[in-house]
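Private note to self, pasted from the team thread so I don't lose it. Backbone tokens:
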């Protein structure tokens, strides 16, 4: 095997150490050390390939970290941090990492200590493309103010995943290159700021917002503007978005954030659509959402959206579930389809939902699928 060309050997080693996504395998360190121990030639090859040393974790041994920073040179760095409050190894890791801030390409932060974030992650990283931030029990974090992650300078960032973190300052974030934005279980977000960020990133491919608590004192929304077209958006989730007030965070105005966001965008090529709304007991008539593709003065219902109309036409079966307080209409998960969607209504009267589904099916666009089935489940 050692007689193989160097480039082929490097490719084999890379496949052994990293996923296709570029992230290192869970057994990276064990495999890495095993490869280096096979022979002097293999160890020399690994030592002379900087890209093998660019994925670092705060849990790696300090001697490996020091050597990796030395060998990786100016190559893009991929850093993973797991919170260890007071752990000297972590401080040494980031003291070295800060000296290479200009090389950071992706950062993954798991259960971080807020003081560590404020010390090491408030400086702009000019080459940064991916941010993953996941915390546990964010409500127990020290109340020392909101974090301006990387100083809000996200101009080069393309992928953002944030979950369970309530102390991130979104108001100062500057970004126009996002392809993927996923935020889950976060609090105190300014709705106008979030809408502005979405409108600024016209290359979005995935937008998933789940269980978000928007600040009741959100800044005033700007005057109504024509919706921005997101031509590349293929997956959109707006699920359980609401304002909260009071010490117990009781939800209020659950529909307002989802509808305000959706009215500001058009997504003609979306193929994965999840919308969850809540309705009062007295709601009647057709569900009219104002963000769809038909221009004013008409007010089309949700199935005027091109991608959802296509989904109806392509569906072998639709599943209707009426189970108070939730009612759901979705494409059948058991059937392989190019397009899928799910619309869920909470606290809507079953009579309203049955009437609306009948109206939708009656106006199904295109030629009806000859074997299209409507599967209905009604729970008492």
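Design output:
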């Amino acid at each position: 095997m050692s007689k193989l060309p160097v480039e082929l050997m490097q490719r084999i080693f890379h496949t052994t150490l990293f996923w296709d996504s570029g992230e290192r395998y869970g057994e990276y360190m064990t495999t890495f050390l095993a490869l280096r121990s096979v022979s002097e030639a293999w160890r020399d090859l690994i030592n002379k390939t900087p890209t093998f040393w660019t994925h670092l974790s705060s849990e790696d041994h300090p001697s490996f970290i020091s050597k990796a920073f030395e060998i990786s040179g100016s190559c893009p760095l991929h850093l993973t941090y797991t919170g260890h409050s007071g752990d000297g190894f972590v401080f040494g890791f980031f003291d070295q990492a800060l000296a290479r801030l200009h090389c950071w390409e992706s950062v993954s932060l798991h259960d971080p200590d807020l003081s560590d974030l404020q010390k090491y992650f408030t400086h702009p990283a000019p080459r940064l493309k991916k941010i993953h931030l996941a915390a546990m029990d964010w409500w127990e974090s020290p109340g020392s103010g909101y974090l301006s992650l990387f100083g809000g300078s996200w101009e080069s960032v393309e992928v953002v995943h944030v979950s369970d973190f309530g102390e991130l300052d979104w108001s100062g974030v500057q970004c126009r290159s996002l392809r993927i934005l996923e935020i889950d279980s976060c609090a105190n977000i300014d709705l106008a700021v979030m809408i502005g960020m979405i409108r600024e990133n016209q290359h979005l491919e995935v937008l998933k917002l789940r269980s978000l608590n928007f600040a009741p004192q959100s800044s005033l929304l700007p005057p109504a503007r024509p919706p921005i077209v997101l031509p590349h958006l293929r997956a959109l989730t707006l699920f359980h978005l609401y304002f909260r007030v009071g010490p117990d965070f009781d939800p209020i105005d659950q529909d307002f954030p989802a509808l305000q966001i959706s009215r500001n965008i058009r997504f003609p090529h979306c193929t994965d659509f999840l919308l969850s709304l809540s309705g009062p007991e007295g709601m009647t008539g057709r569900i009219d959402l104002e963000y769809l593709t038909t221009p004013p003065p008409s007010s089309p219902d949700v199935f005027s959206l091109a991608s959802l109309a296509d989904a109806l036409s392509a569906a072998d079966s639709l599943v209707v579930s009426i189970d108070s307080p939730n009612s759901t209409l979705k494409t059948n998960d058991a059937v392989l389809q190019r397009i899928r969607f799910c619309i869920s209504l909470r606290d809507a009267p079953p009579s309203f939902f049955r009437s609306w589904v009948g109206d939708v099916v009656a106006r199904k666009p295109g030629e009806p699928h000859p074997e299209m089935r409507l599967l209905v489940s009604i729970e008492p």
